[in-house]
Amino acid sequence: MISRDELLKNPIEDITLNDLEKYKDITDIFNKIYGFSSENIVNGSRILKEMIKTADLRFLSFTANLVSTGLRGLFADLIEKGYFNVIVTTGGTVDHDLARSFGGKYYKGSFELDDAMLKDLEIHRLGNILVPFESYGKIIEDVVRKFLPEIIKDKREIGVYELLWEFGKRINDPHSILRKAYEKKVPIIVPGIVDGSFGTNLFIQSQFLNFRINLFEDMRLIKDLIFSCKKSGALIIGGGISKHHTIWWNQFKDGLDYAVYVTTAQEYDGSLSGAKPREAISWNKIRPNAQHVTIYGDATVIVPILAASLLS
């Protein structure tokens, strides 16, 4: 049997845009290859560059599993450098960012490990990433219990994006998504905030502190941003609620002007996660004349390539 110490040897490290500087011309290589997925990467890079130059509202939408990887630092850097000014994500993003910001260590593992063994060793598995019990739930619980009373001491109600800024304000980690969003005043919209450890702990504490989260405040904010923008674009990584919330609100301005999807989901089963941009056109969520592309592949491979290309 493998020991716990043997499994928890190699921690996950966050990357930044600085790490990608020497790869900034990588799409030139894909443009020469120009086969199959290479074309989509080239087009995705081109669309993102134009979006960043011309769209005043720029969404970064992603799923929480990616925040357990080194992409966490890259997302934080993309916020800090001003490439995106609205984040739409899921409850687990807050969980992983808080856990890792307050001392939790995640480790390199394998998809093939015995999960019954991992449970006995008190290790969670997220794909091929290992999360020791002590690096997750207890940390989030302690952080919420420590900071929430002072955050809501003069309030009985608070918008989720404001609450996340308050937690970000109390983080001292340069790779934290919440911290960078607070510093740049980039709203993090989490429509499914109660689906995770952070949301559950908010609920528990609400029983003692007599406060409520107000999701309508987040809806008001995203509505105001949509109605006041001239052009909008989105890099949408993965599917589910974060993808849908992003394109849903853009229908009220007749759709996104730019859309880059990075996904492994397929459209044959009719799922929202697998739906291509062309389907969103029929719902008024993406403009018929919008620039859009779908890039199929693992985000931990595709996103660093796209991010590096922005540096050029």
Automatic annotation (TrEMBL):
Xref: Pfam families: DS (PF01916)
Against InterPro entries, the record matches this protein to: Deoxyhypus_synthase_arc, Deoxyhypusine_synthase, Deoxyhypusine_synthase_sf, DHS-like_NAD/FAD-binding_dom
UniProt enzyme class: transferase
Presence of the UniProt keyword Transmembrane helix in the record: no
Looking up SUPFAM superfamilies in the UniProt record yields: DHS-like NAD/FAD-binding domain (SSF52467)
Annotated pathway, please? Protein modification; eIF5A hypusination
Keywords attached to this Swiss-Prot or TrEMBL record, sorted alphabetically, are: Hypusine biosynthesis, NAD, Transferase
- One Gene Ontology molecular-function label: deoxyhypusine synthase activity
State the EC number(s): 2.5.1.46
State the protein's purpose. Catalyzes the NAD-dependent oxidative cleavage of spermidine and the subsequent transfer of the butylamine moiety of spermidine to the epsilon-amino group of a specific lysine residue of the eIF-5A precursor protein to form the intermediate deoxyhypusine residue.
Which HAMAP family does the UniProt entry name for this protein? DHS
Protein name in UniProt:
Probable deoxyhypusine synthase
Gene name of the record: dys
